[in-house]
Design goal:
With 422 residues, the chain is α/β, with parallel strands linked by helices. It folds into two domains: 20-155 and 336-404, FAD/NAD(P)-binding domain; 158-333, FAD/NAD(P)-binding domain, CATH 3.50.50. It has helices at residues 5-9, 34-45, 61-65, 97-110, 196-206, 232-240, 245-260, 275-282, 292-297, 338-341, 377-405, 412-419, and strands at residues 15-16, 21-23, 28-30, 51-53, 121-127, 132-137, 141-144, 147-149, 156-157, 171-174, 189-192, 213-215, 222-224, 226-227, 230-231, 287-289, 302-304, 307-310, 314-317, 322-324, 327-330, 334-335, 368-370. The strands form seven sheets. The protein has a five-stranded mixed β-sheet, with helices on one face. It has a five-stranded parallel β-sheet with strand order 10-21-11-12-17, covered by helices on one side. It has a four-stranded parallel β-sheet with strand order 4-3-8-23, with helices on one face. The longest helix is centred in the last third of the chain and has 29 residues, at 377-405. The structure holds flavin-adenine dinucleotide (FAD), NADPH dihydro-nicotinamide-adenine-dinucleotide phosphate and 3-(1H-indol-3-yl)-2-oxopropanoic acid (3IO). The site of NADPH dihydro-nicotinamide-adenine-dinucleotide phosphate has 23 residues, from α5. Keywords: Auxin biosynthesis, FAD, Flavoprotein, Monooxygenase, NADP, Oxidoreductase. Pfam families: FMO-like (PF00743). Its cofactor is FAD. InterPro entries: Auxin_biosynth/cation_transpt, FAD/NAD-bd_sf, Flavin_mOase-like, NAD(P)-bd_dom_sf.
């Protein structure tokens, strides 16, 4: 291989012409969340430069701007580490949201990752003539051979169409905008949805003299966060290495019933399918209880059936009950936004998730990759990031060898740059 110096100097130098076209040296990564940062770090370790485009004004914007104050990781920190640099040793077993953000900041600065902020990708398309991806933001068009989708499974809130909700006079907020129950002090609050967000928002509201009513329209698995001092997630991970999934699920449910009691009696019916199997098949995360359950048992959180209709100042439920309420919190989950901006690509479902299931969803065709769409949280992100960096690293070295031996040719980026017209 030839000299490396020239390349090094270009790591943060992308070529821009007058028509707002930026030729990116290395892959384009969309999103500066944990997935984008992890991939950029792993690429850097392979000596591959990259450019992150981020629509928000900071890294890990989901964690900084769209989560509630009292959020902590549900899984022990060893299951939420990104590759190459772990959590600080003095962090507790379940780091707070602020500790997680500080870890992300440290991670980005350790690998000198400098995303371009306030760049919302509005369209990305493969140019078959050039053989490159064209990635448009509101300001520029970025061009690269590789495009890495890191916009996350939680890019947009799910806002269900509930009859009458437009007429409602009170406040309606999605959990992505909920910070603390202080704004709802002494109010009658309806929380729609009973995933981890719904449960934890209800628990938070209890601290502010609210008796939240939580809508549970369906079945749900609730597991204790820990059993006998071990994290339930850790126990499950260890058991599936040795036993069939269905057996592990049976065991988990046995232990959960032992520590939590029968949840059916408090309106939380369990699905027929076990918690891990359900997670693998549908992506539905079991609730890891951090205190909501005991509030339900003591009547401080009320479980109600599905909403039929929202009125001016209340709600009607499918069982015929009617209630006056002051505010509604939508704990109805999140969705990918990939279909809104990635065009002409068969790799994603209409919901914006890769069609191939884990662990094979990270590589599409024509230099397209995805990181963080595994439904396996940050562990899935770590796995994808390592795979992508290895794969692109090999291609990068091949191209470099070509360029180094054929010194009669211009470096590839210049050839392309001259062809780009707008
Ligand atoms: C409340 C909550 C708690 C969670 N807790 C855990 C946990 O304890 N453990 C765990 O493993 N996982 C947890 N998760 C899952 C979560 O998905 C991961 O923690 C992690 O944030 C995923 O990282 P990501 O980079 O894939 O996505 P994100 O963190 O969502 O980052 C994606 C980034 O892409 C940007 N973006 C989106 N669209 C565009 C666009 N068009 N152009 C440019 N930029 C764009 C966004 O602004 C964002 O910064 C939690 C999720 C939520 C909602
Ligand atoms: N500390 C942590 O680690 C935390 C992690 N998270 C993670 O973030 C992700 C998102 O969680 P979350 O925000 O809870 O979203 P989820 O998708 O897990 O849950 C959404 C909930 O809303 C319900 N719902 C959706 N639409 C309606 C409707 N029209 N009427 C009534 N109910 C409805 C769903 O019910 P149904 O099943 O019937 O569709 C479900 O109970 C998960 O992976 C979760 O684990 C979240 C909070 C804390
Ligand atoms: O919080 C998420 O989004 C995750 O995917 C991580 C996670 C939390 N609880 C779980 C239970 C089973 C598998 C993953 C998770």
């Amino acid at each position: 291989m030839g000299s490396y110096k020239g390349e090094e100097q270009h790591h943060h130098h992308h070529h821009r012409n007058e028509s707002n076209c930026v030729l990116v040296h290395g892959p384009i990564i969309v999103g500066a969340g944990p997935s984008g940062l992890a991939t950029s770090a792993c690429l850097k370790q392979q000596s591959v430069p990259s450019l992150i485009l981020e629509k928000s004004d900071c890294i890990a914007s989901l964690w900084q701007h769209r989560t509630y104050d009292r959020l902590k990781l549900h899984l022990p920190k060893q299951f939420c580490e990104l590759p190459l640099l772990g959590f600080p040793h003095n962090f507790p077993k379940y780091p707070t949201k602020h500790q997680f953000i500080s870890y992300m900041e440290t991670y980005a600065s350790h690998f000198s990752i400098k995303p371009r902020f306030n760049q919302a990708v509005i369209k990305a398309e493969f140019d078959h003539v050039l053989g490159f991806w064209r990635v448009k933001t509101q300001d520029f068009e970025y061009i690269s051979r590789w495009l890495i989708v890191a916009t996350g499974e939680n890019a947009e809130p799910v806002i269900p169409d509930i009859p009458g909700i437009d007429r409602f006079k009170g406040r309606v907020v999605h959990t992505s905008l909920y910070k603390s129950g202080s704004v709802f002090k002494n109010q009658r609050v309806l929380v729609i949805g009973c995933g981890n967000s719904g449960m934890e928002v209800c628990l938070d509201l209890c601290r502010f003299n609210v008796i939240p009513h939580m809508v549970v329209r369906n079945t749900v698995h609730v597991l204790p966060r820990e059993m006998f001092g071990f994290s339930t997630f850790g126990i499950a991970m260890a058991l599936v290495k040795w036993f069939p999934l269905k057996l592990v699920d049976k065991l988990l449910l046995l232990l959960a019933n032992f520590t939590l009691g029968n949840t059916d009696q408090i309106g939380l019916r369990r699905p027929k399918t076990g918690p891990i199997e359900l997670k693998n098949v549908t992506g539905k995360t079991p609730v890891l209880d951090v205190g909501a359950l005991s509030q339900i048992k003591s009547g401080k959180i009320k479980v109600v059936e599905g909403v039929k209709e929202v009125t001016i100042n209340g709600a009607k439920f499918v069982d015929g009950q009617e209630k006056e309420i002051d505010s509604i919190i939508l704990a109805t989950g999140y969705k990918s936004n990939v279909p809104t901006w990635l065009k002409g690509c068969e790799f994603f479902t209409k919901d914006g998730m890769p069609k191939s299931p884990f662990p094979n969803g990270w590589k599409a065709e024509k230099g397209l990759y995805t990181v963080g769409f595994t439904r396996r949280g940050l562990l899935g992100t770590a796995s994808d990031a390592v795979n992508i960096a290895k794969d692109i690293g090999e291609q990068w070295r091949t191209i470099k060898e070509c360029n180094d031996s054929n010194f009669n040719y211009l470096p590839q980026r210049n050839v392309v740059q001259n062809k780009v017209k707008k």
